[in-house]
Amino acid sequence: MDITTRSVFMVGGTSGIGLELARRFRAAGSTVVVGGRRTDVLAQLAEEGLSIVEIDVTDPDSVTRARDEVLRAHPDLDTVVTMSGTGLPEDLRDPAHFAAAETTIAVNVLGTIRVIDAFTPHLLERGSGTIITVSSGIGFLPFPVMPTYGASKAAVHAYSEALRAQLAGTGVEVAELVPPAVATRVGGSNPHALALDAYGAEVMDLLAQDPTPHEILVQAVLMHRWAERDGTYDELVAQRSQALAMLPGRSQG
Questions:
Q1: How far is it, in rounded angstroms, from Cα 215 to Cα 210?
Q2: Catalytic residue among 149, 159, 199, 233
Q3: What's the CA gap between 248 and 97, in Å, rounded?
């Protein structure tokens, strides 16, 4: 895609990867609107010169209001990024984990679908555009400490594949961003997390390819994406399972 001429709605772009990509799209010459729930952060971004819209992807009315506001101001909108996401540790031996599971599915899966549904008619009517979904390397190579997060991102991957198939021939393309651990609120505790600026630069280079890749895979996520193919899956899951010791009441051994 031509990253210099897009009109982008970055849903969940008030921090982390979303904000990094929003700033990079704007720096490249694109028009960018950042959506998020936190009004205080949105106000700070507005002072920075970014266009902002309040949106809560778990609230259908909020998504509808945000869509209408964005399209009134930017009727030429051609790119929607479903960046909103949350990830929480869960101890599956404790039924109390279910609250975290519900929150994760509500944001990561249903929120993604809700945003896509809101903007697909507009993109179909204009006959071109891009939907960028956000899964995770954990969707392909589980991190057992965050089971529902991994399941939600596997769901986003499957949904993205189906969405691409259903929109084939319409002019609307679907790209799936597959991050590894990145130094953000969610992934920053990982000592191997990729620096945010390095990740942003690599992603923008991949997005700028023509045609846009179906999956945006930086080098650091390839070991996750292709673990089953490469025969490293069982070994890597066992390594990652060592982190279960961090859960309360757990210990190694």
A1: 13
A2: 149
A3: 12
Other CB atoms within 10 A of residue 51 CB:
17
Q: Which residues contact 178 (CB under 8 A, 6 or more apart)?
A: 135, 136, 137, 139, 140, 157, 215, 216, 217, 221, 224, 225
Q: Count the helix, strand and coil residues of the chain and give each as a percent rounded to the nearest 5.
A: 50, 15, 35
User: Does the structural domain 7-246 have CATH classification 1.10.600.10?
Assistant: no
Sequence-ordered alpha helix ranges (H) in 49-146: 60-73, 98-105, 111-126
| pLDDT tens figures, 50-87 | 999 999 999 999 999 999 999 999 999 999 999 999 99
The tokens of 9 are what? 């709605």
Q: Give yes or no for a contact between 215 and 133, defined as CB atoms under 8 angstroms apart.
A: no
Q: Can you give the pTM of this predicted structure? A: 0.94
List pLDDT tens digits, range 188-219: 467 788 999 999 999 999 999 999 999 999 99
Residue for token digits 């996520």?
A: 221
Report domain extents, the chain: 7-246
Residue 199 annotated among the catalytic residues of the structure: no
